[in-house]
Amino acid sequence: MAIAAVGQICSTASMRANLDQCVRLVSEAAVGGAKVLFLPEASDYIAHNAQESLTLAQPQSTSPFVQGLCSAAKSHAIAIHVGIHEPLPQQESTRKLLNRALYISSGGEIIESASYDKLHVFDYANLKESDTVQPGAKLTAPFDSPVGRIGSLICFDLRFAEPAISLAQPGPRSAWYQRPAQILTYPSAFTLRTGQAHWETLLRGRAIETQSWVVAAAQVGRHNERRASYGRSLVVDPWGEVRVRLGGTKDDLGDAEDGAVGQLGFVDLDMGVWERVRGEMPLKRRDVYPEL
Ligand SMILES: O=C(O)CNC(=O)[C@H](CS)NC(=O)CCC(=O)C(=O)O
Question: Which GO terms of the molecular function aspect are on file (predicted)?
Fold first, then answer.
């Protein structure tokens, strides 16, 4: 069995408290038999504003949050996929961050070749991610994990079909044509309004069009006075069926439902289903779209 766990948290500006929430989930996921734990975007912190975000970000090599997760991965012998902020090496006045997804092995090592930097930054209403985040430059090749080959994308990337298809239904010119992603993962912190309108529809669409498992660990609830996230972490199978749905928010203020913060879901990412769906309904002809 390829058991994975999806963990839902509510990060704040306290990295210590965020690490504690995550480590609790690491331990519970391991006890439940999961081989990989998926955690949300920005698990290290959600800041009040741009300035605070630039101040809080620490390089992954020294970040107590990342180092703490590496030790937890090792002591519980479970791999972790997690979203963090990585500062670029500029002066603080001009500094930018990368919005990064890390993969930590069950031995507690960061697999550098698996790191992915969010390609599409989210500017919407009063959220201007481009004030602090420099967009990534490229996709990361699908990489092996104990539950299957993972293709990493982040949050707002969910709105773009192209990177999902490139990772999971690559054409013959792709470097990973023979080794496509079997699991697309979207660590997220969706807004209440856009989550209500689009979250589940987009995730199911990506699963159906790519014939892949889709794992989306989400932030939930109120991070601070100005910010809340939609929650409802989801796992969708390659046929588009929802296999796990965690709790969400209960009102317009974004207060989390009871039990939604720190909630954990388990799923068997059965690659027999992946093969069957693709075998029954092959989606070939990618050669017709060389621009992709
Ligand atoms: O701010 C941080 O530190 C972490 N980053 C985020 O929460 C990002 C950028 S503000 N959120 C999204 O991409 C939400 C996308 C979304 O809600 C949609 O596409 O509808």
Answer: deaminated glutathione amidase activity
